[in-house]
């Protein structure tokens, strides 16, 4: 059974129908949203009608209000005022399993992002795909090691044993010469200049949140505008470089993916399950192992036939 997550936006000075939120409310329920409800309970100087309505709703229901670390505000207006319109509500049974934090606002918006992590131990039967960074591989060392480990390998009648030795040698060479891992949240256009502008913007935002002065808010908007302009220019330059370097004759797969993406088509690898001896195989590793066993069996039959014929 999954979690029931509700995202909500309540316009300013609007009295919401909160009773509908309690329908099907259970121990796996979460509510996140911008309630625009002023209450001293979450940092406002005074409570409004909507805020009092929210307080009564929380106190009269099986609902917990999850406060931010240190009661941090979630919104910074252009005038410098800080407020707390964004709330996180959970069922009491789920509250101990919630990790809650605030992320920096994206772009020029003043709203911080509520990030919620539900702590739960999960198990997956799917095998994780091993990724390798081939751009940072030491190919000269890899060639030398493979020649030493596999070059003098003696092939005999036992093909399975020879195959195991070859696979073992390739894996050992790959572990020594090809680093594992892949880029997370890769941004091809990102550079040192953008990183510097982002750090300046973050410092300006922190100053505006602490001081609340109009001049600091003006500086924040200027830093935001400079960063947005630089990001747009970097994206255009990166895209233009990609088009110039793309060779449609030699790099057909990437060209096909690129043109398909422009046409709104998603290219996904075909992962059809197969059934072997009444067992349904779904993971890539199990399917590959089944194919290897099949072809090894065919190869052994051929070898036995040749031996009987005296070849």
From TrEMBL:
* Pfam families attached to this UniProt entry: Exo_endo_phos_2 (PF14529)
Q: Which GO terms describe its molecular function?
A: catalytic activity
Q: Which InterPro entries does this entry report, sorted A to Z? A: Endo/exonu/phosph_ase_sf, Endo/exonuclease/phosphatase, RdDP_mobile_element
Query: Endonuclease/exonuclease/phosphatase domain: which residues?
Result: 5-100
Supply the name of the protein.
Endonuclease/exonuclease/phosphatase domain-containing protein
Please name the taxonomic classification of the source.
Answer: Eukaryota, Metazoa, Ecdysozoa, Arthropoda, Chelicerata
């Amino acid at each position: 059974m999954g979690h029931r997550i509700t995202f909500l936006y309540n316009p300013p000075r609007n009295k919401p129908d909160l009773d509908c939120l309690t329908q099907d409310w259970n121990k796996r329920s979460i509510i996140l949203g911008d309630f625009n409800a002023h209450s001293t309970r979450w940092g406002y100087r005074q409570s409004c009608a909507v805020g009092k309505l929210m307080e009564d709703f929380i106190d009269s229901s099986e609902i917990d209000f999850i406060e931010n670390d240190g009661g941090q505000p979630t919104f910074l207006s252009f005038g410098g005022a800080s407020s707390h319109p964004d709330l996180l509500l959970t069922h009491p049974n789920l509250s101990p399993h919630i990790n809650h934090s605030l992320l920096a606002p994206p772009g020029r918006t003043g709203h911080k992002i509520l990030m919620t992590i539900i702590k739960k131990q999960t198990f997956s039967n799917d095998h994780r795909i091993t990724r390798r960074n081939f751009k940072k591989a030491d190919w000269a060392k890899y060639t030398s090691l493979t020649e030493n480990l596999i070059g003098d390998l003696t092939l005999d009648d036992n093909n399975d044993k020879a195959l195991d030795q070859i696979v073992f040698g390739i894996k050992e060479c790959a572990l020594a010469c090809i680093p594992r891992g892949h880029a997370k949240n890769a941004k091809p256009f990102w550079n040192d200049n953008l990183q510097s502008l982002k750090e300046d913007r973050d410092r300006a935002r922190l100053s505006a949140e602490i001081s609340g002065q109009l001049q600091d808010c003006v500086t924040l908007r200027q830093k935001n505008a400079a960063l947005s302009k630089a990001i747009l220019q970097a994206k255009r330059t990166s895209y233009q470089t990609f088009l110039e370097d793309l060779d449609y004759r030699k790099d057909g797969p990437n060209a096909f993916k690129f043109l398909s993406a422009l046409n709104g088509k998603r290219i996904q690898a075909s992962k059809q399950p197969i059934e072997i001896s009444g067992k349904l195989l779904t993971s890539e590793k199990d399917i590959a192992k089944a194919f290897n066993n099949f072809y090894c069996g065919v190869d052994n039959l051929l070898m036995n036939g040749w031996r009987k014929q005296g070849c």
